[in-house]
Amino acid sequence: MNVCARKWGMITSVGRYVYFGKLPDRLRAAVNASALICANMIHNTKPGVKASDMFEMTKKWYAQAGYPDEWKNIHTGGAIGYQNREWVATATNNETVNTPQPFAWNPFVSASLSFHTIMSTAAGTEILTEIDNWPTIDIKIDGTTYKMPAILERQ
C-alpha cells in the first residue's frame, strides 16, 4: 500500500506492505533495501541540502544496497505538504531543505517500498507516520536508529 491522505489541507504519504503466506526472500530483501535507502534519506534531510545533492546521494545508496539501477523506476520523492509532492529530487533541482518542511522520500526497490512522511525541523528530523504495533526494520546510522516499516506478515 502506498497511501497519500489529506487532513486540514496537509498531505502525508506512507508505504506499507501486508503479505499473506510465506514471505519470499527476494521480497524481504527488497523491502529491507528500500528501508535502508529511506533511512539514509531521512538521516540526510537537513536544512540547506539541495534536492540535486539528495538525488545523487540516493543513487549511491541504491548501489550500496545492491540495486544500482532501481532508482530509475520511480521518482525518489521530495517535499510534501499541500500537494502530493511539491517538488521531487532530480539531478537538476536546486530546491533546498528548509525548516519546518515535510518530506516523503520513497525509494522503490523491485516493486517494494518502505517509507515515512517526515518533518525537517530546527531540532532535527521528526518521523510523522510511525504506527504503533507495525513491524519495523531498525536501521542505525551515525548513532541514530530509524524504525522503518517492515512487511506485516499474515499466514
Keywords summarizing the entry:
21% helix; 13 strands; Creatine Amidinohydrolase; 2 helices; alpha+beta; 5-stranded antiparallel sheet; single chain; 155 residues; two-stranded antiparallel sheet
Question: Any overview of this molecule?
Answer:
This protein has helices at residues 25-43, 51-64; strands spanning 2-7, 10-15, 17-20, 77-79, 87-88, 101-105, 108-109, 112-113, 118-121, 124-127, 136-141, 144-149, 151-154. The chain has 155 residues and is of the alpha+beta class. It has a single domain, classed as Creatine Amidinohydrolase (Alpha-Beta Complex). It has a five-stranded antiparallel beta sheet. Helix 1 packs antiparallel against helix 2 (51-64). The protein is globular, with a radius of gyration of 15 Å. The protein starts with a strand and ends with a strand.
In short:
The protein contains two helices and 13 strands. The chain has 155 residues and is α+β, with helices and mostly antiparallel strands.
Helix content class:
10-25%
Helix-strand category: alpha+beta
Average pLDDT rating: 94
Which band does the percent of strand residues land in?
A: 25-35%
In angstroms, what is the radius of gyration?
Answer: 15 Å
Largest sheet: 5 strands, antiparallel
Strand element count:
13
Secondary-structure topology with pairs:
Elements (H helix, E strand, L loop, with lengths): L1 E6 L2 E6 L1 E4 L4 H19 L7 H14 L12 E3 L7 E2 L12 E5 L2 E2 L2 E2 L4 E4 L2 E4 L8 E6 L2 E6 L1 E4 L1
Parallel strand pairs: 3-13
Antiparallel strand pairs: 1-2, 4-5, 4-6, 6-9, 7-8, 9-10, 11-12
Helix pairs in contact: 1-2
